[in-house]
Amino acid sequence: MTFAPVALFVYNRPAHTRRTLESLAANAEARETELSIYADAAKPDATAEEHERVRQVRGVIREEEWCGSVTIIESETNRGLADSIIHGVREVLARSGCVIVLEDDLRLASTFLSYMNSALRCYENDPEVMHVSGYMFPVAAELPETFFLRLTSSWGWATWRRAFDQFEPDAGKLLAQLRQRDLLDAFNLEGAYDFAAQLEANAAGRLRTWAVQWYATLLLKDGLGLFPRRSLVENFGFDGSGVHCQDQDGRFASSADAAEIRVTRSVPRESEAAREAVRRFLKPPLRSRIRQCWARFSGASARNR
What we know:
By secondary structure, this protein is an alpha/beta fold.
């Protein structure tokens, strides 16, 4: 049996990187898995301490034979996370039909690779299925073992070459297409989460990310993401060490459940129950919404003075 290759993206967090690799190696399938590790270089204005952390990470990734085969790609210049992931995913997909993608702050369940490979094989020939997520929001709802959403998650995910070939990185173009097709409300999960603001920030150059563009691409292509009932991934990067990690109230915290998720084929169709559960989970409470509105109003007022 051939297992999907894994691409791991690391930068300057040695302890986080080691923890992620240890959890990956604890998966039985790791011994027969090809791992490509993309190590980014320090930023041009990085401090000596930051350079040292980058050097330590490059030592950690060489400590063990984490998988059946390990290829290390060390960048000589700082690409940034978005460019690193887009480049690395495309590079792996150029020689393989699918890829599993990880970052350096994810603890994986011991059944993570089993689930991801089963899902990749099961839906390999379904063009509308574009994404497989290992993470699931800790929603308060009873859901099927696996289900589909018109949504993606960047915390332990997988895709196929046929799907990622459609990826559109241009945030401005994606915004225009979403508006043209009247999909902004659906993109924001009917007002539950302001994904459009992230896309607008990327289009304006205030933000440089990639995941919201992948989600927009999937929605515009009428694609689907497969999700597990229980999360097989825990993100432990909300400790101030990352650049884009923000979870101040801890509501996205989800332990990596080691119980096996069985993937059985079903008709690719979004689960209305799962969408509503995620929408309810993401929608901020009234007090938070009032605070956000006030912050926007105050910012606008300040700019107008």
